[in-house]
Every structure is written in structure tokens, then in C-alpha cells.
Specification:
By secondary structure, this protein is of the alpha+beta class. The protein is built from eight helices and 32 strands. The protein is elongated, with a radius of gyration of 48 Å.
């Protein structure tokens, strides 16, 4: 390039001015050429445009209609719960088009008409009948022309093309005049080099295509479309089809006076009036009962024989027992013979001697039987209460000691929970309580009483489960979280614990269903009510539709 710009003589002021004119001309008219027609080789930029939609709602229903290629796909849900309504009858009136929507296999409804493929605005009404509920929903449907932007862009091109042609002609005339006047080839080469430099400088301007045009590479789709996406304000656009896939459900928030709560750490224990333990009173070997050895979870009745314990002893004890038994049997034989002799002399010997001899025989028989039985004594282990086997630690033939815990029987509908409270006044301010072994579970409890002696610096509180199936969620010795509702009240909104999620700043938040397909995040302040419900005391207002099911999935939309 330096060789090109090294003429034999310096350029005059005219030459320099002409080079500046060429630079300015290319800079000004290059965009005009770029904005002109480029033929079929310039592909139009793709854009992911959201399908035309209509939505309407009442106190009963919420309806969304999505139009594609002359077909409207209708989604009908309950307004309060967002539960799909799949068994309704929907009559549609869109301008001059009338008819009934056809139920589809995915739970939606379809309505087809050629008017739905024509650009314009239609007033659409829906008559919905679902069971005993009937409602009228209406709205305006705007169907845009997808080629409207291209036509508008084409209208602005002719004057730009003519301006480019006129500018190019003037530029060529100026160059021809200068070439005629210039005598030295070097000066003309320098001038042309300046023109090429101006053209190269203007090239980046030419890369900026006009509306609806592209000059290479794959077009990047614009934001939007029918897919779930996070909006600029932090909200979420979630189409009805995606809502059904994620199982999104809502609850209309209602403000109420809710009890303040205290959370305690507790443990499930055996109810002394509804459970029992089975222990042997002697050492021995386990033998199965009439129904075999009971298994975990097996139901048993009070007084039923669960197992047998056959007494066992060492060799010395067994030998002593056998020797004592032999001695008693010998004495018994002599006593029987003495009674027989006295009976033969009856009338000659006093009757009292005969009765004494008979009494000795009876006593020796009982003693011999007791000693003989102790060698192979058997103890029957019976169920002290009716219930189910909660613990079993024996097998047939196992040797156990006196006092070993072999079986534990509980009534699964009646168990106790012990919790430790560090506030002595709490026991007098309890309105209700519940136990939670896992998030989202809650077992109602009845307050029984409080201990008067401290245990590890805390006051033990005893609760009893309310009879019912919810008590089946608890197991003996299981740690639980006890939520105590006091008699004090606070204003708030009761929502399930599943509705509360964390935002990027690790703050508690809920998702509010602000539109048919729009969700907005709300930062809230919560207080626990029980294991499955919390009270939102700040961040909500009455009438908000809070997402109670599927909130974590909505929170993951990006």
C-alpha cells in the first residue's frame, strides 16, 4: 500500500479534495446500495413469533385459545385451581363462524374455520357447559399478517435505489473528468487508490442489511415463541400445554386469622395404654407358638400365644434336679406303702395316722411333679395387648435370658410423641399441635400434659396421636418436628409448604398466576402452621392465585 501512495510528485490540493469527495460519496451511498434489493439470495431473517392467542376468564373458568393455520386449540381450566376441564361442551362464535369445539385426546378442544387463517380482528365468544356450571367467555382475537413487515420494508426501497443510482452516476462523471485532466499516471493511480481505500472503509457500512435481509450465516431466531421462557421482569411465560405437563395447580389466597406457632424437636414413643412388650421370666430356648413365630407388621390379639420358652440349665443344675427328683420318688414309694399297711390295720390304728400318711403321699407327689417339671419347664409368651408387631428379635431355637425384650406390640393408630420445650409458659398456651416426619406430611396430635421436672434443661411435653390413618405415618423412636399452634393469632394466608421455593438470593418466594399463561415471582415472609401448611404474613394480597403444585418446576424455567 505504501508503494501505491508514493507518487513522483506530491498531490495537489485538487487531488486531495477529490479523494475526500470519493470517500464521502462511498460512505453516504453504501448504505443505500445495501438497503436495495438483493434478489432471492438474501434469506429473510427468521423469527419465532408467538401464535395468535385469545384468553378470557370468569370466577369459574379460564380459557386460552391458540390459533395456528386456521385451527384454534382451546384449553379450558378451573379458574381457582387451574385444574383442566376435559368433559365440557364449548360453543364457539368467531365473527360469522359458528360451531362446537371438538374434544381432543390431550384434554384440549379444537375449532377449525377458514376465518381463523385470515388477518384481522375477530370478536370471539365461548359458551361453556361443564356439569352443572355454565358460563359465557368472550374476547378479541387479533390475527396478524406474517408478511406485513416485509411488504412495508419493500415500500421504502425504490427511493433508496434511485438515490444510489444517481450518486453512482455523478461519481463516475467526476472520475472521468479528473482522468482527462490528469497527465501523469502516478497521480491518477494515487487518486484511484484513495477511492479504493474509501470503498474499503465503506464496506462495513454495506454489511448492515436493511429490514428483512441477511447477508450470510444462519439467522438467529428472535425471542418469543410458544415455548416456556423467563421474561425480562423475572416472570415466566408458560403455555397452557406446558402447565398441564408440569401439573401446575393454584389456590386463591384468602386472608384469615391464623395461630402463631412454635417448632419443637420430638420423638415418637410407645403409648403405655395402647402398646406392650413381651419378655420371658426364665432363660431358655425359643420354640414357635401355634401360629408360628410372629413377623413384623403382623396383627395379634390380646392373650394370643406368640412363642414358647423351654427352660434350659447347665449339667450340674440338671444333675441336682434329677437327684432331687429321684429322692422324692423314693420317698413317695415308701409313703404309698405305709398308707397301704395302715389301711389294712384300719380299726386297730387311729384314723388320724392313716390321714397323715395319705397327706404325706399327696405332698410328695406334688413335690416330685414340680421338680420333674422344672427340668423341662415351658413358658408361654402371650400378647399383652392387641395390635401389630413393631419389633421382633427372635428365631426358632434361639437361647434367651430372663428379661430380654423379644416382641414389641403397638397400636398404629395410637402412639405418643415426646417433645422438649424451653419455655415454661408454652404448656399453658397450646391450642393444637401436629407432628411432621417428612416435608409435606402432618399428623394431628392431642396435648396430654407436661412434666414437672426438667430433662436436659427442657420441659418434656407429651402428645398423643389422634386416632386415624394419618398416625400410620409415624414409627416408634422416629424423630419428628412438632409444630405447636398457640392461642395467639396473626393475619396471613395459609398455603401448602410446597408453594414456597427459593429464589436466586435464597429468599422465600411463591409464584403467582397473574395471567392465563403468565406467572410472577413474589418474595414472601412465612411462618409455619403445621408440617404441611405455612402462613404467608407478607408478600401476598387477597385474591392472588398462588401456585401450590409444580412451583419448583416453574422456578426452573429459564
Amino acid at each position: 500500500m505504501n508503494a501505491i501512495f508514493k507518487p513522483n510528485r506530491p498531490l495537489s490540493l485538487v487531488h486531495k479534495a477529490l479523494a475526500a469527495i470519493i470517500f464521502i460519496a462511498f460512505s453516504v451511498f453504501a448504505p443505500a446500495w445495501a438497503a436495495g434489493d438483493h434478489g432471492a439470495e438474501a434469506p429473510a431473517a427468521a423469527s419465532a413469533v408467538t401464535s395468535p392467542r385469545i384468553n378470557s376468564h370468569s370466577e369459574l373458568f379460564e380459557l386460552v385459545g391458540v390459533v395456528d393455520n386456521g385451527e384454534m386449540k382451546i384449553y379450558l381450566d378451573r379458574y381457582a385451581s387451574n385444574e383442566p376441564v376435559t368433559d365440557a361442551k364449548i360453543e364457539v362464535e368467531a365473527g360469522t363462524a359458528k360451531g362446537a369445539a371438538t374434544p381432543q385426546a390431550d384434554g384440549s378442544y379444537s375449532f377449525k374455520h377458514e376465518l381463523l387463517a385470515q388477518p384481522g380482528t375477530l370478536s370471539v365468544s365461548f359458551v361453556v357447559a361443564a356439569g352443572k356450571d355454565t358460563d359465557l367467555l368472550a374476547g378479541d382475537l387479533v390475527i396478524t399478517d406474517p408478511h406485513a413487515d416485509d411488504d412495508h420494508a419493500g415500500e421504502t426501497r425504490p427511493w433508496l435505489r434511485w438515490a444510489a443510482y444517481v450518486g453512482a452516476a455523478l461519481l463516475l462523471v467526476a472520475l472521468a473528468a479528473v482522468a482527462w485532466r490528469m497527465r501523469r499516471r502516478t497521480g491518477f493511480a494515487g487518486l484511484m487508490a484513495a477511492g479504493l481505500l474509501a470503498l474499503g472503509t465503506a464496506a462495513p457500512w454495506d454489511a448492515q442489511a436493511g429490514p428483512g435481509h441477511d447477508h450470510g450465516g444462519e439467522a438467529t431466531p428472535a425471542a418469543g415463541g410458544n415455548a416456556p421462557q423467563r421474561l425480562g421482569d423475572g416472570g415466566v411465560f408458560l403455555p397452557k400445554a406446558s402447565q398441564r405437563q408440569l401439573g401446575v395447580r393454584t389456590l386463591v389466597a384468602e386472608e384469615a386469622s391464623l395461630p402463631t406457632t412454635v417448632e419443637l424437636t420430638g420423638r415418637v414413643v410407645l403409648d403405655s395404654n395402647a402398646g406392650g412388650k413381651v419378655q420371658p421370666t426364665q432363660a431358655g430356648r425359643i420354640e414357635a407358638g401355634p401360629r408360628g413365630l410372629p413377623q413384623l407388621g403382623q396383627a395379634v390379639r390380646k392373650g394370643e400365644v406368640l412363642a414358647l420358652v423351654r427352660a434350659s440349665s447347665n449339667a450340674i443344675e440338671r444333675a441336682n434336679q434329677q437327684a432331687q427328683s429321684a429322692e422324692l420318688n423314693a420317698s413317695l414309694t415308701l409313703a404309698v406303702r405305709r398308707v397301704e399297711r395302715l389301711q389294712q390295720l384300719e380299726g386297730t390304728v387311729p384314723q388320724k395316722d392313716i390321714e397323715a400318711a395319705r397327706s404325706d403321699v399327696t405332698s410328695l407327689q406334688q413335690r416330685a411333679a414340680a421338680v420333674a417339671g422344672s427340668v423341662s419347664a415351658t413358658e408361654s409368651l402371650r400378647a399383652p395387648v392387641s395390635g401389630v408387631i413393631a419389633a421382633a428379635s427372635v428365631v426358632a431355637g434361639q437361647v434367651v435370658n430372663a428379661g430380654d425384650l423379644l416382641f414389641e406390640i403397638v397400636d398404629p393408630t395410637r402412639m405418643s410423641v415426646e417433645a422438649n420445650a424451653f419455655d415454661a409458659a408454652l404448656s399453658g398456651n397450646i391450642a393444637s399441635a401436629s407432628a411432621s416426619a417428612a416435608p409435606g406430611t402432618s399428623v394431628p396430635l392431642q396435648f396430654v400434659g407436661a412434666g414437672n421436672s426438667l430433662r436436659e434443661g427442657a420441659i418434656p411435653l407429651v402428645f398423643r396421636t389422634v386416632p386415624g390413618k394419618t398416625a400410620l405415618l409415624l414409627s416408634i423412636n422416629q424423630p419428628v418436628k412438632v409444630t405447636v399452634q398457640t392461642k395467639s393469632q396473626v393475619k396471613g394466608f395459609a398455603v401448602p409448604t410446597s408453594a414456597v421455593v427459593k429464589n436466586a438470593s435464597n429468599q422465600d418466594m411463591v409464584w403467582v398466576h397473574t395471567g392465563a399463561e403468565l406467572f410472577a415471582p413474589r418474595t414472601v415472609r412465612q411462618l409455619p402452621l403445621d408440617g404441611s401448611t405455612v402462613a404467608i404474613v407478607d408478600g401476598l394480597k387477597a385474591g392472588d392465585r398462588v401456585v401450590t403444585q409444580g412451583a419448583p418446576l416453574v422456578n426452573q424455567v429459564r
